[in-house]
Amino acid sequence: MPALFPESAxxxxxxxxxxYFFLIAVAVFFSVLIAxxxxxxxxxxxxxxxxxVGVNIxxxxxxxIAWTVxxxxxxxxxxxxxxSVFFAMSRPPDETLNIYVVGKQWMWKFQHLDGQRExxxxxxxxGRAVKLIMTSEDVIHxxxxxxxxxxxxxxxxxxxxxxxxxxxxxxxxxxxxxxxGTRHSGMIGEVIVMEPSEYEAWLSGSRVEGSLASTGExxxxxxxxxxxxxxxxxxxxxxxxxxxxxxxxxxxxETVVADEAYIRESxxxxxxxxxxxxxxxxxxxxxxxxxxxxxELVEYVKSLNTQQSPAK
Length: 312
Ligand code: CUA
What we know:
By secondary structure, this protein is of the alpha+beta class. The protein has 6 helices and 12 strands. The site of dinuclear copper ion has 9 residues, from loops.
């Protein structure tokens, strides 16, 4: 007998299934109730004599209230329950293992912080919250891991996140769930959930050229970003140490939180948001660097927060 739900292998799976089961149960209950009543009334109130005519009914207040209030209550339960699951899914825990994802026609590219790169395969440890920071090189894709009950669009030009915590080792399907061209159906992969020790062994067994942040640092020098963005106050560009996660004061009085999207935009379209006190002199890097290189630079800027002990 096929199972009602796909295999569940994340902390979110049972919560999603419980809600889904409730929706099915409500639908089945009322479908059966209504169908049953139709049949029952058809028999019970059938025309018994050729001249038999029913009595006119002019509404009933109690009935009106009952069939308004009961569905409203059920809808409220679905809303509150659904919202709580939605918030749990959309807010990752503070401590997550971050992995970058770049979708393109037609493959998935994964970048681990230590520098490991994978295509169409993603290795993660069991029992740890993993956050995927995702973007696309071309069109809209969508990451879907049924066993984890997580699914999110992957969009060109911006970062989207999902998180999950796998509960048992194994290999799980990864699908693209947004039609993205001829080979959309072939844009599939596997998430390989491993015991922490196995995962460590896998990490250290993979050939890497350096962590994402160190590759980013090298790029930062190669692109000559370093000539303006300097840690001493001599630079013509804003200091990047301790920047990530902070609120930045912009020209014109607005503020913006320095997250991944802000750093990405500042590299590709530097004129979009000028930090107060600086001139719009930075050249654009649009078309000059790939999504992967952008992620390396973002990760380098992030790493500047931990290298430096912030003076408060
Ligand atoms: Cu990528 Cu469908």
